[in-house]
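yo

u said u wanted the structure for the complex thing, so here. seqs first:
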Amino acid sequence: MTEFIQLVLAGTANGCIYGLLALALVLIYRSTHIINFGQGEMAMFSTYICWSFLNAGMGYWVAVPLTLILAFAAGIAVQRVLIRPVQNAPELTIVIVTLGLYLFFNSLALWIYSGVPKPFPLPTGIRQASWQVGDIFIIPYHLFIFAVLITLMAVLYVLFQRTKLGLGLRAAAAQPASSRLVGINVNWMLALGWGIAAAAGALAGMLSAPVVQLEPNFMATILIFSFASATLGGFDSPPGAVVGGIAIGNIVALGGRYIEFIGTQLDIVLALVVIVAVLLIRPAGLFGRQVVQRV
Amino acid sequence: MEFVRSFDYRRNWFFPLFVVAGLVWLLAEPAKLDAIPAVGDLIGPFAGMAALLSLVAIGTVIAAYLLRPVLDRGPQAERALRWVGYGLIIAFFACMPLYVEAIPHASMLKMTVAIQFMIVIVGLNLLTGFGGQISLGQGAFFAIGGYTLAIGFREWDMPWGWSLLIAPLIAGVLGFLIGIPALRFKGPYLALATLSLAVTVTPLAKKFEEFTGGVQGVAMFGKLSVPFWQDNLDRFFYYMTALLALLVFVLAANLRRGRFGRALIAIRDNETAASAMGVNVALYKMTAFGIAGAFAGLAGALNGVVIQFVSPDQYSPLLSIRFLVGAVIGGVATINGAIIGGLFQQFVPDVTVSINKSAPDAIQAIILIVVMYTMRHGVAGFLQETWRYARSGLRLRKPGAGGTAVVETVVVVEREEVVIVRQDGGGAA
Amino acid sequence: MSAILEARNLRAAYGDRPVIFGIDLAVPERGIVALLGANGAGKTTTLRALLAEVRTWGDVRYQGQSIAGKSTQDLVRMGMVMVPEGRGTFTDFTVEENLLLGAYSRRDKDGIRRDIERMYGYFPVLGQRRKQRAGSMSGGEQQMLAIARALMSRPKLLLLDEPSLGLAPLIVQEIFGILTTINREEGVSMLLVEQDAVRALKVATYAYLLETGRVALEGTAEQLAASDDVRRAYLGY
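structre next:
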């Protein structure tokens, strides 16, 4: 039982990170129906930028917000420069362009920072040692990750549901043509969506870097888990992405321990199984809206 | 739905400029083409490729001009000329040993691998270009081919020739079966599902150590015997691969031209309409997956034979992405594009890797995006378009039968309405 | 009477395909002008061209100044608002959120609040359903919502695209009643695209008849209603 709880705690912490990146995927998919295959690599590159800041002597609490702002701006730039020209192009074109983003950021990171793993610090003020409650060890950093996720969700909820900008963002995503007619600058709303997504992804990268080592491919596996999370939660539901993320985190942690065959090597197969199973059984995911396709 | 849009000179007026710039660069200092890696930055490869592309484009225009008297005799002459073209391409590959040394960065082995890439890409062109099914998982079928060879060699001492038969069979059946879940996925979802297929290959191969040899892989160096040319294995494998590739190309071209190809395109362009016309959508999609899988399996087995080594890390997800990139750059809805795609995937990384170990991927990424913006039918589509423009005397007229036909129908419909209105009005007068 | 909108030699194209070949039209201040014509005559395209939603050439003046190069959202801010065909309801949003979206280009919170209440006055049915998902309402209710949403931006000129499409005659009558009231009480000018020529010519003061992207006939509503051509082709008597 103790081990089970321990696994759930660790799985939830990892799941929060998957959920964050899934959130980024969902924010973009919801507004533009693009699955951004480059999302993980953009996050990875942002994490390297943050590492550079830290390496230059900047404090954690300065470097991280600064990186988030840069990631936000970069997300907007990517949408304006690269995605907008192909926005209405056939879906193969868009998939290819986002794969181009994947290749580009991956190779750029390898080029600039080399493949040698870099240590990434815990946030200043978060202690390394764990607390013991009964038989269970609680790692402070896991709680921190959870708190960050909850805070971000709250901020996004207020932004989307309680502000005029949020209303515009939602409207532009749901019905771009009508939005234009009420005077919403739809193109900017889509770009802002990419910016928010890039920042959320960067956050996922910077939160996971202390746990796994920072190297150019460290987000690739996380991206697959995030795909599974977003598929499970529903590609058009931001809360679904987070719930899906936590679910996947636990499925992977528990499956790896209790299913003999999976072990630690095949955890990615679990993600594949989830993706295919969800797409077959309930393509809209747990929280997504079933869309009736009109002919 | 329009799946891939072709190159349009008017919308992409800057592209010919880009080509001309590349040409100027080339003429200014021809020696640079050789010295590309030595340039030491990224501009070299791009300018080199632009120059190469511009040379070919200009060659196309000149050919169209010189061959005018023949071509003007009618469609039969044009068809004959196309066969001459195919003959030239085949002759080029057939006589490879004569000049392979003279081509920078080339060798018989590299050419063999390039042709194996072509085999995968032809399958992908059928599946993605004509069938509209995006697959990021061809690497998985390639791996199945490789491991059919390796496991057969390891477990049962199976002669490698058998794997060339068995691998496409296994990969084809698996592809066909994977087509079933794929029926329910559309567009990016399909890309996602097939990508996860590609991702699982490496961990699976590592997991089943007892068959696959785990991380160490299976080495077959010097243990694969060939019937002749024992002293020149590279040459033997080259011709074997090239012959099989020719077979694959002929098969693909026939599939494309026949009933199968028409059905696939119909499904791609309008699935509902195709199904309403009695096309068995499920069967055709699954068959397309099966064929693409079989081609990839064959190529994978060939690759294992030639490299004589199979290990999990050869089959990273990046391999699958590279196949798709090659297909797209060559021209995804063409058969001939696979030749360009295969050569590109073998030689561009090879040439650029000396700049930096990650330069090939960076350059591919940039080329990929540029190609997507400028020529969505890839290099082959670009050359076809160039040929058509050259044939129509470089008039700025939009070629392409499909688009024009649609516009004409609309116009006709409008005219009918006008006629009706006028008839009513006339009746009153 | 001066014109709020004046277009000279208006041309428009979808991609490379021209659809409108030089239209001259004017909407007088506080007036209602009808745009009639068969399917494919270019009525909707004319509206979309005026709002810069398609590739457009020609000289268009709104309140006396040229609007060349202005984007759709600029024009909405300037008070030129379209009620699109098919109503353009934000289906997943509540009725109230739809009205707030209509006021997206405005910044005066109190004024927006007051205007929402005013809309509930014009359209009581919307007031009863303010928290309901707009997509779940009937066609007539959604059409009312579309008009209310457009009015929320305090427009000076409304471009209405087939407000009667697919609605029961009684509902159409109610909607046209409200439109004339709004025109009279608030002085909103209207350019009305309609298939139902009888109804349109009743509320409009002036009308244009489009045929394949050109003005085939124009005149006061009475003149057009009396014209044999129009009667035979569009009025059906």
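The CA atoms of residues 43 and 193 of chain C lie 6 Å apart. Chain C touches chain A at residues 51, 53, 72-73, 76-77, 81-82, 84, 88-93, 97, 100-102, 104-105, 149, 153 (CB under 8 Å).
cya
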